[in-house]
Amino acid sequence: MTMPPKEDTYAIAREIAARLGEEETGPIRQIEMLIRYVGLEMVQQKAEEAIQIDAGDGMLTQTQDRRRTLGGIFFYIIKRDMDPSIRQRVFPNFGMQRKGAVLEWVDRMAHIAPLLDAEPGVGDQIKITVTGRPGEVVIYDNTVITTIASAPREDAPIPRGVPLPPAEATPFIIYMALKHWEPAKRSLDKNANDQLMVEGLCALDRDSGTIAIFATAVTTTKIQKAEKSQQKLAAQKAAAKAAKAEAKAPGKKAGAPPAANAAGGQPKKDKPAPAPAPAPVVDIPVPAGMPADAADKLRQLHNAAITLRERIAAKESAGQKAPLEQKLLQ
Known about the structure:
- This protein is α+β, with helices and mostly antiparallel strands.
- It has helices spanning 6-19, 25-38, 40-55, 70-81, 84-90, 108-117, 178-190, 221-247, 292-317, 323-329; strands spanning 127-132, 137-140, 143-150, 170-177, 196-205, 210-220.
- The chain is built from ten helices and six strands, in the order H-H-H-H-H-H-E-E-E-E-H-E-E-H-H-H.
- A six-stranded mixed β-sheet has the order 1-5-6-4-3-2.
- The relative contact order is 0.06.
């Protein structure tokens, strides 16, 4: 199996794609993957076969309602003739037709073309979280810049109906504040299996061909785990302290017999404290067209947040901390 140098693979894939009438980046990347997995000879052979079929009677689509494009013929016959184990890696959605077709990434352009011509939706803030070991680091005054190239895992929990992302890694360039980077760097230097965790706003950097991440929160997996352990320990200590204070309250001494009633009869039993009144359900406006179950869930979350805020306020007024409630509210 002939395997060209890695730096030449994309250029060769682009040439083959041009012969097949494919100019988009997606099909070119797919052909590049095919060269790496099945070899250049098979890719060239199937390209020639597709050209001959297209020059003859052509080939209809699966629904038999239109003629396949030259590129469509190529991808169809190479999927058909590939080793099944390799095909599953290059085309993960192949054969998943029993419960309805699943869009494959390589076929997406025909479906999203109308969206690209229409007015896009308007986003408020687009946040992203990236986890991994950083590459080289550049520090300019108070700005730290590094890179992470992230590829989807083979066991990624993608729901059925969502196309699997391309196998090649997506390049990210991360911009961080120096004060956020320094504690993360110490942990990364100390632990070879630690990973940088960055959350921030993202944007397409067309000049570099990467996704830029403007970090708003920087930590590592080790630091985050330690912080969660500390929060859990603090919550346990607070609960133990509250229980101890309640046991020492007047009338709550251990072993003290309950007082008898005025008539000298049986000792009075403390009446159970009345159950707190449930927080009133506050109806909130929901987006038009939202399904009923989603709207109910949104209302439940809103009311749960009100309850948590009330508990936090009650504890703080009593001089107590409420780390668990704060965490749940977040």
